[in-house]
Design a protein that fits this description.
It is a single chain. It is built from two helices and five strands, in the order βααββββ. It is mostly beta strands. Strands 1-3-4-5-2 form a five-stranded antiparallel beta sheet, with no helix packed on it. The longest helix is centred in the N-terminal third of the chain and has 10 residues. The N and C termini lie far apart (about 40 Å).
Length: about 170
């Protein structure tokens, strides 16, 4: 993922905090926030995940006039083929299983404040494997760095995905 411009807006922060059920006034009350250590409205810890909506290539972002994978049992307009090895592929393809989101962590280097404009860049991280009863688990990490307009690192997000690779099936 590369996001050239992710504006962090106070209204967006407030709506995000409401959506996650966090009533902390530092997420919406400017007067209150001025009296805190950051001195301004800040974003909740997982807020940077919303930057995906600013990535034109984000796969779960609906695009006008194009089929959308969606989030229900039967995706709107797109049918995924088995065996792709990615999240939601349904398994069944030559021993490859479903990919899942396994872990997410955020490291804040400084508070993310309303008014900041970030740039996000994702790079591959570590990969590793574990063998279980039903086959091999393949883990892969991606690291997204969020930098402000001066290039200073604000947040580092690490995401780990896992996919199963069961025993190979014989073709008939």
């Amino acid at each position: 993922m590369t996001v050239e411009r992710f504006p962090v807006e106070a209204g967006h922060i407030m709506l995000f905090a409401r959506a996650i059920g966090d009533p902390n006034p530092i997420y919406q009350d400017g007067e209150y926030a001025e009296g805190t250590e950051p001195g301004a409205i800040i974003a909740p810890p997982t807020f940077v995940q919303a930057s995906a909506q600013f990535d034109p290539d984000y796969g779960l972002r609906p695009k006008v006039g194009q089929p959308w994978f969606g989030s229900g049992r039967e995706p709107t307009g797109i049918r995924r083929e088995a065996g792709g090895g990615g999240a939601g592929d349904g398994g069944g393809g030559g021993g490859r299983g479903t990919g899942l989101h396994a872990e997410q962590s955020y490291e804040y280097h400084k508070p993310l404040k309303a008014g900041d404009v970030l740039r996000a860049t994702t790079t591959p991280g570590k990969t590793w494997e574990k063998v279980g009863r039903s086959g091999k688990l393949v883990f892969s990490e991606s690291v997204t760095e969020y930098r402000d307009g001066s290039g200073e690192l604000v947040v580092t997000a690490r995401s780990v995905g896992v996919r199963t690779e069961g025993p190979k099936r014989e073709e008939t």
